[in-house]
Amino acid sequence: QVQLQESDPGLVKPSETLSLTCTVSGASLSDYHWAWLRQPAGKGLEWLGRIYNRGRTDYSPSLKSRITMSLDTSKSHFSLKLSSVTAADTAVYYCARLGLSFFLDAWGQGTTVTVSS
Amino acid sequence: DIVLTQSPGTLSLSPGERATLSCRASQSVYTVYLAWYQQRPGQAPRLLIYGASTRATGIPDRFSGSGSGTDFTLTISRLEPEDFAVYYCQQYGSSPYSFGQGTNLQIK
User: Fold this and answer.
1) d(Cα B23, Cα A114) in Å, to the nearest integer?
2) Which of residues 4-33 of A touch B (CB under 8 A)?
């Protein structure tokens, strides 16, 4: 059974870079594609982007200038970096696995990121 | 980009009743690449339906999905207490993938 676990950066200061990792167990990073999403408190889900099993990326156009995703198969984790954060980036961040046709078939529990000085 | 609009925003029903949730896309969804997720308070979303009508592993058969093109429906035949949650549709046929705003299914 696949399990995904986001790291916990907690509080991030405005204008700094948010860094998250998602550790995967029960599945090989090289066999699937992976995604990041977020959800502000009381609001809906926002797609941030995906990283293919060989490292190619596909980002949301609204975040493309600030976002970077990467894959580390040796450590069984993939990562998200979001630069120049503001309060609007405060949310629960989820990592997820993309299934056969790119639906999201497994999710991490989510990690709350607060942007505040 | 494809915009998904879910209706109703809130649905109040009693256990045992039938729930019908709608998801309408601003343009045709490629190859019925439409999924439904359930999110209970404080939890991550859980995949219910993919390909518009295929139940994910372990999902009870009271959940069913239908539709194609721009109109999709999630039906819960007889509501159980654990079904009261927020439901999201998502299209994954066209990047950027997008979600509906959610339907809050609450106990009447």
Assistant:
1) 31
2) none
